[in-house]
Known about the structure:
Elements lengths: L8 H9 L1 H12 L2 H17 L8 H18 L1 H8 L21 H6 L2 H7 L4 H11 L5 H8 L3 H18 L7 H17 L2 H5 L2 E9 L9 E4 L1 H12 L3 H7 L4 E7 L2 E8 L2 E11 L6 E8 L6 H10 L10
Parallel strand pairs: 1-6
Antiparallel strand pairs: 1-2, 3-4, 4-5, 5-6
Amino acid sequence: MGTMDAVDPLATARFEAGRDRLAALAYRLLGSAADAEDAVQDAFLRWQAADRRLIEAPEAWLTKVVTHLCLDRLRSARARHERAAGAWLPEPLLQGDPMLGPADTAEQRESVSLAVLILLERLSPVERAAFVLREAFAYRHAEIAALLGITESASQQHVHRARRRVAAARRGGEADPAAARRIVAEFLAAAASGRTERLVALLTDDATALSDGAGLARSLLRYESSARVAALVRAGFKPTAAKRRFLGGDPAFHFALLNGSPGALAVLGDRVVGAVAFEIDLGIEGGRIAAVQGFAAPARLGRLTAAWRRQGPSAPALAHW
């Protein structure tokens, strides 16, 4: 029965056992760790209030509740406005964050990459949910249909369209750790040198860049072509007194894996003040950077900072800006 007047420890324990899975689902649907946590907490309150004697399959019930809470958020006026205005970018997560799970297969890891999360913004909320449930959590189409209130055929069509878009944007497989570190180190060295030609040599001709502008701009900053991306990076990495005042000092840069992609964190003391992630085109010998995503808005860095503090210090890839 419902437990509005008292917390049922057994029901709480059952929910907590699946919290990470629910949070991972919500994160893939929303692209925001903070919003995912809110959705999961709302689901917990509904779970506590429900007459659980009538719930035959708790995992399916909770999955459905979280999915629909996320769909409601995606359809909300605020979310539609942010996405229409081009102000939306996923919140990056450090490797090992439970919200990135499950990550046993290449398809599961790809489904939570920053590139795919950005791409999924072009899908309708239901298409996005069908794709995530199928690719990341291996739900059957009959199960997806029941969860989303659609037909089995519609589920198949939604997943097929999403897969086609992801495949069209794919730049190759996963970079091995050694190659990822090498590419990031070369990028940081080139950016620190201030020489545009060194940066251009690391980029594909059709490279793109996307930045949240530290949250100061109304829309995302978008750049296309290797020359424009290199100019952006050179300007962004150029140390100035104004930047030091804004950040509160002179950060060091550390190699990191963000949503499985090679990248770097700008760290000041024990606080992450910026992050950059790279999409690598492995179809070119040695690998070249096809896309750069930059994050400096404080709202997107809180979970990264908490994860960085838990992880502990490491030797910087670039000690001085």
